[in-house]
Amino acid sequence: MENQLLPGIVVLNRNYFPDSEMSAYKVGATHFALEIIKCLNENGSLLGIILYKRDETLSEPAIKNETLNGYNTITLFFNFRMNDESVMEAIDRAIVMLYRSETDNLIVYYHTDTIIQYHPKHIPACLTHHGPFVEDFIENYSLIEAYKAFESNEKVHHMLEQQKRGLTTLLSNENIFVLQHSNMQSRFLRNKGIRQDLIKAIIPPIIPITVSEVNLGEKLQYFLKNISENELILTSNAARIDYFKNMDLLIHSALELTKKNIPVKVIITGGSKVDEHKREALYKLIPENLRYRFMFTEKLSKLELYALFKIMKRKGIFVFTSRYETLGITPLEAVLSGVCTIMPDSDLVEASRFFPQKYKFSPSLEMLVDKLNELYFSKDYKTNEVNNYVGSIISEENFKKSFINMWSEITTIVNEKKYSKSASCK
Fold first, then answer.
1. pTM of the model
2. Where is the Glycosyl transferase family domain (predicted)?
C-alpha cells in the first residue's frame, strides 16, 4: 500500500488563535498548535482549521465558515450544556465542509482534550495534552496546593471531571492517538491504561526567530539602558504569573545575590493588565531601596520577547523556577535564542530533560543562589555551551522530521485498518 500522508484538520480553542503570527500568546501551548498547522500546510496536507468557542446563550451548536490569517476556518459555537450528539454532529458537519470526501480518510488533530468527547468515532484523530493533569499535580503536591495553583476550587473540580471524560474517551476509542511531547504526560496516560502503541512521541516545535530593532516600551528600554559589564541580568518570562511559575524564588535569589555584592537586574514579564495586582504582590517582596533593580511588566509579544532575548545574550541568565511544568516553551525559546538558561533539576519540569546537569539546580533558594553565583564568577553564562547542547536535540529540522514520521505512522495504521475492514467485507 502506498503510504501517502493523510490530510489533516487542526482543532483549536478560538480564544487562543492569535490575531497575527507575532501576537502575544494567551497560553504557551498556542505556539505548538501553530507550528503543527504550519508543518501540515507546508507539506500540502492541511485541509483547514476548526476553532471552538463557548457561547452560553445558545441551545444548539452553530458553525461559521471564514478565512482567518489566510486559513480556511470554521468556528464552532457551543457550550457544555448541549446534547453530546448535537455537538458531535456539528463537528462532523464542519469536517465535511473542509473535506468533501470520505471522512475516515483524514486525521483530525485536537490541540487539547477539551472537546475530544465530541469527536465523531469513525474519524481518525490525535491530540496533545499540554496543560497539567490535575490528578497528577495533586498526587505530587496536594489538593490544597492545586486550589492555589489553578486559582479556583471550582476550576480544579471542573478540570478533574473534564479530564476524566477525556481519558474515558481515549480508553474507549482506539481510533484516537496521542501526539505527545512530554514524558510526564506520557507516564500519566500509560498509568491510566492508555496503550503505548497509541502514544506517539515528537520533538517539541521550538523555532526561534531573528528580530531587528523592536520597541520594548519606554520603561523597559530605560531599565536596560547602560548595563555595565559586570552587571548580571536575570529574567523570567511567561504567559501567566501564577503559583506554577514560582517567581518568588527568582526574586529571593536575586536579593541573596545582592547581599553577596553581585550587581543584578531582574526582569519578569507575564500576565495582562488585569494581573497588575499579581505584579504588585511580587514588588512587595522587595525592600524599597532595591526595587530600582527590578522591572515587572505585562507579557511580551513574540517580537518583543525575542528582542529581549537578543539583548540578554552573554549579558544575563533566563531563570526558570517553575514547580510543575509539562514542557516549558519560553525557557526553551530563550536557550535556543542564545540566552544562558537554567532549569530546576526535577522530573516535574519536563524541559529539564533537554538540559545538561551543569545548567540545572536543585529547586531550593540555596541551590539556585549557588548556581547563579557559580555561573556569574565562571562567566559561563557568556558562552554558548548550554545553547549548543539543547540545540542539538531541539530544532526545526528535528521537530518536522519527528512530526512527519508520527503522521506517517498514524497514516499507515489507519490505512491498514481500512484495508483489513475492506478485506473482511468481501
1. 0.89
2. 237-345
